[in-house]
Amino acid sequence: MTSYLKKNKKILENFSYLTALNLFNVLSPLIIYPYLIRVLEPDNYGLTIFAQTTVAYLVIFVSFGFNVTATKEVSINRDFPEKLNEIVSATFIIKFLLFVSSFLILILLFSLIPKVGNNKVLFILTMWLCFYEFVFPVWYFQGIEKMKYITLFSLISKLISLILIFFLVVKESDYLLVPLFNGIGGIIAGLFSLYIVFKKHKVKLKICSISVLKYHIKDSYLIFISRVSNIKDNTPAFLVGALLGNQALAYYDLAFKIVKVVVSVFNNVTNVVFPVVAMKKDNKWFKKILIVEFFSLIVCYLILVIFRDFIVTLLGSGQMLPASPLIPILGIMVVRPLASLIGSCVLITNGLNKEFTLNLIYSTLFYLVITLACWGAEILDIYTISWGIALAQLFELFHKIYIIKTKKLIHWII
């Protein structure tokens, strides 16, 4: 046991850091949730969630898949300073251009979507999410396996935001202060992280040639397409907010946040394990991780279902009980970390980027077919929207397993 702990000390340390971070990231909204619901009322709270959901599409654009490809490149080249400088520089340059482009897209949305155009200030303030995606180099810290920096700066960011919200958001009309204060915390975390990268680690920004930028764009292109195809993650909340109203979105958001606690914790496994598997390609060790995660997720799902009424009442009081029936449905999404782990550590590690992308495209098409069918049958409501995303998540997992079997890689998971 002692030798195992020594051998995997770095992995366990990074997992602990990311688990602490994700627990705080997921629990902090739940902690402040009762306060915001009481002060802002479900309608204004739902409006802020609608803004976050809409801007989340732009975050995918700014990310451009670098959280996968840049992590892999940094992990492989961490001991080669010149190459590392090139990777970091190219990634920041491209993400800056994407960040600027995201603002132009938002301006276009002001004209295309009335609900967005009528709340311009709210959406502009919510764009801090895109700035954070650009400036905070999660991919760098994951690649060098220094998750403590991600944890430290993110905790500082969240604490600043929570303190400001608790003390200064005091009435219903203060809903614009929520994204403002979240943004202040995010910007501070981003600036601290840049100090570590360029001052402490002495990474140097350099001018990259067009050919180098093209290479990194091409390298991330398929992952970006997979992320775009994965818009099904944001679409349910967007549909609920756009079609059913802000109050219904508040119910959906609470149920989703509760499930997200489990999903976020187990997503850490992929974040920590992927750089190691990408470098060592140890399938026997990977299988042990996979088995433990599988049974742990089953236990977590049962806990969510059994105690759902208690959890909803604890977080949102009796007025939020309509969120409770959504938990067994959305709870099926606890298989997401399993699909993510298999996708990154088996498909991408073995060079199956195209298959990885096609899997997410097919699962998105599956989701869209279900959603359109429900809309055509005039049964599109908060429950069918939830069932659509849950079934699409199961499809994604089983299709990944099918790909692994057809590519004769089944020994990675069985």
UniProtKB/TrEMBL annotation:
Q: Tell me any Pfam family this protein matches.
A: Polysacc_synt
**Is-annotated flag, keyword Transmembrane helix?**
yes
Per UniProt, which keywords does this protein have?
Answer: Cell membrane, Membrane, Transmembrane, Transmembrane helix
Instruction: Spell out the protein name for this chain.
Output: Oligosaccharide flippase family protein
Where found, per UniProt? Cell membrane
> Does the keyword Membrane belong to this entry?
yes
Q: Which PANTHER family match?
A: O-ANTIGEN TRANSPORTER-RELATED, PST FAMILY PREDICTED COLANIC ACID TRANSPORTER
Where are the coiled-coil regions? none
